[in-house]
Write a structure and sequence with these properties.
497 residues, 16 helices, 36% helix
Length: 497
């Protein structure tokens, strides 16, 4: 932009000189602006050319033995017992210990928001007060007793923390700056979850509030850690800083991230959700995918995640339709056989161990639909399977901590086969994810040295059972050839020392 005046006389000469000075200033400003724009373009281009951070070159946060060796049991207190409270959980601790559970995860225990609530009761993930306990579940003393009784039995207890959002009638609404706002200045909600309000982690005061809240539950109740709802929607640096503060109070804690993001496991979390593998499992069992897709999902995870990263392995939880409903009875057990023999830490959701079909995902999440425990009489193979598979995992160093190697088989579209290996044993697993009999082979050397240790879920034989009946139940090892029923699984062990 330049100025031009054409006139005569001394006055015009003065004006012309001023105009020339002004033009020089404008030229310099324009040049400076052009330089600034060019610099921004250069910096932006350089940033775009920066290689993405390769988390596979980094090490994951180290996990304590009790985490790596654990079996997690998710409890929805509202539905777990007839009482629907903490005391109803405490009353079943002995049964859970006998089942093989080592880590109890309590879904959110806080008061539920009523403004814009979903369903009759509302979602436990619409928290009204992070420092309070849902009165339907009991008192602080009831929770402390549950935790202390679990500890007395050698079990750990973690609680669900919903750090991404609160209810609309949260006690924190007195600080509107704690929340994100839309273009009109109104507090907004995450995703399409209209019953909750999104928190703003750009606010340092919110970060301080949430960190102090986490410290409170460890300091006052001796909890053993947290399952963190939609952890990947909360900035990773918040979790990293919070974990450092929590470790100062109680170093021996465990944090589980609901999310699948590699940087979460560098500093803050020991476990995350293995969603891609879970999705591949569902597709395979429902006929939309191949068994080989499970291996592909596992290998992609290994390629991108930090070295030594652990994942929670699951086929059922409160966000999904029940596995037994999605897959059918025998396929639900095949799915669990897979999750309990993979690397990582397996999850049981309350009721799985008896074959319960009661829904607890949305919209059932917002109602009270108790687990129907007597269904175990109808499906006795379920409690037998879960008790045996947890015992098998507990007895096997290879299953809890060993390496994993995929093995070729003669029908990889339908069957997965792999070997878990430790210093003193190998455990070979083959699972048929189809409704057709598998009569084929697995590429394994010296198959005759493996012993069949597959859980026997049939009715126990009486002590005086005749020899032909006992022979019919005997499992003859014929590796590398193998016959597996539809939705069946076989597990073998070979001692190396």
């Amino acid at each position: 932009m330049y100025l031009k005046i054409e006139t005569g006389g001394p006055a015009s000469n003065r004006i012309s000189g001023q105009v020339r000075s002004l033009n020089r200033i404008v030229s310099r400003v324009s040049a400076l602006l052009l330089f600034t724009v060019s610099l921004n373009v250069f910096v932006g281009s350089a940033a775009a050319q920066q290689p993405a951070r390769d988390f596979s070159k980094e090490s994951a946060r180290a996990s304590r033995d009790w985490v790596r060796d654990g079996v997690i049991y998710e409890i929805y207190p509202r539905v777990f017992s007839a009482e629907g409270n903490f005391n109803g959980v405490t009353a079943q601790l002995d049964r859970l210990r006998e089942l093989g559970v080592t880590i109890i995860w309590l879904m959110p225990i806080h008061p539920i928001g009523q403004e814009k609530k979903k369903g009759t009761i509302g979602s436990p993930y619409a928290v009204r007060d992070y420092y309070a306990i849902n009165p339907d579940y009991g008192t602080k003393e009831d929770l402390k007793r549950l935790i202390s009784e679990a500890h007395r039995r050698g079990m750990k207890v973690i609680i669900d923390i919903v750090a991404n959002h609160t209810s609309w009638d949260s006690v924190m609404m007195k600080w509107p700056e704690f929340y994100e706002h839309d273009a009109t200045g109104k507090i907004t909600y995450p995703h399409n979850w209209f019953d909750v309000a999104k928190l703003n982690y750009a606010n340092p005061k919110l970060r301080e509030y949430m960190t102090e809240m986490l410290k409170y539950w460890i300091r006052e109740f001796d909890t053993d850690g947290f399952r963190c709802d939609v952890a990947e929607d909360v900035p990773t640096d918040f979790w990293n800083n919070a974990r450092a503060e929590l470790d100062k109070i109680k170093p021996d804690i465990f944090m589980l991230a609901e999310g699948h993001k590699p940087d979460l496991e560098i500093k803050a979390f020991e476990l995350d959700y293995s969603w891609p593998l879970h999705n591949a499992l569902t597709d395979a069992l429902q006929g939309r995918g191949r068994a080989s897709d499970l291996r592909a999902a596992w290998e992609e995870e290994m390629k991108r995640w930090p070295r030594g990263a652990l994942h929670m392995r699951f086929s059922d939880n409160h966000d999904e339709r029940r596995a037994i409903a999605r897959f059918g009875e025998p396929a639900a057990l095949a799915a669990s056989a897979f999750m309990f023999t993979l690397d990582g830490v397996p999850l049981l959701y309350n009721g799985m161990e008896v074959g319960d079909t009661t829904e607890s995902g949305a919209p059932a999440l917002f109602e009270k639909l108790p687990v129907f425990w007597p269904v175990a009489e109808r499906r006795p193979e379920f409690p037998r399977f879960y008790k045996q598979i947890t015992a098998l995992r507990k007895s096997s160093d290879a299953l809890r901590r060993g390496s994993l190697e995929w093995l070729r088989n003669s029908d990889e579209n339908r069957v997965v086969s792999y070997i878990r290996r430790s210093n003193d044993e190998e455990v070979l697993v083959a699972i048929n994810f189809s409704n057709h009999l598998f009569n084929g082979s697995i590429e394994v050397a010296n198959g005759a040295s493996f012993s069949d240790i597959t859980p026997d879920v049939g009715e126990p034989l009486p002590p005086d059972a005749p020899a032909p009946e006992r022979a019919a139940r005997a499992r003859i090892n014929s590796l590398p050839t193998l016959v597996i029923d539809s939705w069946g699984y076989r597990i073998f062990r070979r001692r190396l020392k």
